């Protein structure tokens, strides 16, 4: 009985470490990122343009999620800081 409890404790400890490592890896993949660019109308920069980055909805007609936004400077340059969304969870049966 004692050996079974010890083995069960080891299994649960390993499972907990695997779960913790997986969560840490997922968090690292979703760290903040930057998206930069220039807004132009023809060959001229567009000053003060609003730029918004969206994550598409998961189904047709579903709402998109705003990831970040920025305003273009006097040269039309912008930088949007955003965190990528978590990947969707799929269930197969």
Question: Concise description?
Answer:
With 93 residues, the protein is of the alpha+beta class. The protein is built from one helix and six strands, in the order αββββββ.
Describe what you observe in this structure.
- This protein folds into two domains: 1-30; 32-86, no CATH class.
- It is built from one helix and six strands; from the N terminus they run αββββββ.
- The protein has one helix at residues 2-29; strands at 33-38, 40-41, 44-45, 50-55, 65-71, 77-82.
- A two-stranded antiparallel sheet has the order 1-6. The protein has a two-stranded antiparallel sheet with strand order 2-3. The chain has a two-stranded antiparallel ribbon with strand order 4-5.
- Strand 2 and strand 3 form a beta hairpin.
- 3% of the residues are buried.
Strand content: 25-35%
- Uncertain residue ranges: 11-20
Number of distinct beta strands: 6
Number of domains: 2
Name the descriptors.
single chain, 93 residues, alpha+beta, 2 domains, two-stranded antiparallel ribbon, two-stranded antiparallel sheet, 1 helix, 6 strands, 31% strand, elongated
Secondary-structure blueprint of this entry?
Blueprint: H1 2-29, E1 33-38, E2 40-41, E3 44-45, E4 50-55, E5 65-71, E6 77-82
Antiparallel strand pairs: 1-6, 2-3, 4-5
């Amino acid at each position: 009985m004692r050996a079974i409890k010890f083995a069960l404790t080891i299994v649960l400890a390993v499972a907990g470490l695997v779960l913790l490592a997986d969560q840490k890896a997922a968090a690292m993949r979703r760290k903040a990122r930057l998206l930069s660019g220039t807004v132009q109308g023809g060959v001229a920069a567009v000053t003060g343009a609003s730029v918004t980055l969206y994550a598409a909805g998961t189904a047709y007609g579903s709402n998109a999620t705003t990831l970040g936004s920025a305003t273009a400077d006097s040269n039309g340059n912008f930088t949007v800081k955003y965190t990528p969304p978590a990947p969707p969870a799929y269930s197969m049966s």
